[in-house]
UniProtKB/TrEMBL annotation:
Part of the intact protein present: 301 to 581 of 581
Listed name of the protein: Bifunctional diguanylate cyclase/phosphodiesterase
Domain EAL stretches: 23-279
Length: 281
């Protein structure tokens, strides 16, 4: 692209080429990491904004690469989706999250009043048998379906609404909770809110973090909260980074909150300790 200046060693390469190269090696290495079970799930608490107790945890994939260090899900999840590896990753996450919640029950010696949330990619909805995947995770962990929340995005609906409807209904038949993730950032119509069995709206952090400086963001959050209430759905706010946001959201009637103000995603045993520390009884 650029003429090489005399005497200057050309240590760079065109941006697109190096990005494509990195993407390709991420794919190869992600495949290996999945086979060698090198990914981990971290658990971020969702706090009941009324009681202050932990309502549940969202399972988030983490990958520490031997040489490259921590690789963000924002980078490897899209690669997993493009390559189809998300099917394997998604099943792994489902099984492990369910097993972790079962382990916590066992450690405390009771059925904990907690759920675990697992992200489902639109690619999984389009290509995998979700009902089969979830029932197999329930069977091997021994959990009942009401302990699971599946977080789906609007993009899993727009491509094939008929298929999405069957998937959502199959999840309800297993007694699982269905949450609409990143609500408000997608391109689908509001009509699906009426047609699909959705239990929870997760308000995207882009709206939540804007609330303190932008009255329009507050208006959007208010509107989503009243829409959810009118439709009999619960609400979670993502990206709660300050006590002011937590207080404001609680006053507006948002049911739960998730964000760095409460805790970042935690390792399995840290997460259980966090639950204990906020337990009332
Ligand atoms: P998401 O589902 O919207 O998850 C929430 C993201 O917000 C997480 O990023 C979380 O660490 C981050 N977060 C939590 N609290 C705060 C906060 O207060 N402020 C800010 N700025 N960020 C906060 P993470 O873990 O990097 O994951 C990014 C995305 O990768 C997730 O977004 C999700 O779409 C995807 N992802 C992660 N794990 C999985 C997985 O196992 N399966 C699938 N399909 N997707 C996953
Ligand atoms: Ca999510
Ligand atoms: Ca989200
Ligand atoms: Ca988000």
């Amino acid at each position: 692209k650029q003429a090489k200046a005399a005497g200057t060693p050309q240590v760079y390469e065109p941006k697109e080429a190096s990005a494509a190269r990195r993407r390709f090696s991420i794919e190869t290495e992600l495949r290996r990491a999945l086979d060698k079970d090198q990914l981990k799930l971290f658990y971020q608490p969702l706090i009941n904004l009324k009681s202050g107790e932990v309502a549940g945890f969202e399972a988030l994939a983490r990958w520490t690469h031997e040489d490259r260090g921590e690789i963000s899900p924002a980078e490897f999840i899209p690669v997993a989706e493009e390559s189809g590896l998300i099917l394997q990753l998604g099943r792994w996450a489902m099984d492990n999250a369910a097993q972790t919640l079962a382990n916590w029950d066992k450690a405390i010696g009771e059925t904990l009043p907690l759920y675990v949330g697992v992200n489902l990619s639109a690619i999984q909805v389009a290509r995998d048998n979700i009902a089969d995947m979830v029932s197999s995770a329930l069977r091997s962990s021994g959990l009942t379906g009401d302990r699971l929340t599946l977080e789906l995005t609007e993009s899993s609906i727009v491509q094939d609404p008929g298929r999405a409807t069957r998937v959502f209904e199959a999840l309800k038949a297993l007694d699982a909770t269905v949450a609409m993730d990143d609500f408000g950032t997608g391109y689908s119509s509001l009509a699906y809110l009426q047609r699909l069995p959705i239990d929870v709206l997760k308000i995207d952090k882009s709206f939540v973090s804007g609330m303190m400086r932008d009255p329009d963001a507050v208006a959007i959050v208010r509107a989503v909260l009243s829409l959810a209430e009118a439709l009999g759905m619960s609400t979670t706010a993502e990206g709660v980074e300050t006590v002011e946001l937590a207080t404001t959201l609680a006053a507006l009637g948002c049911a739960s909150g998730q964000g760095y103000y409460f805790a970042k995603p935690l390792e399995e045993d840290e997460a259980l300790a966090y639950w204990k520390s906020r337990r009332r009884r």
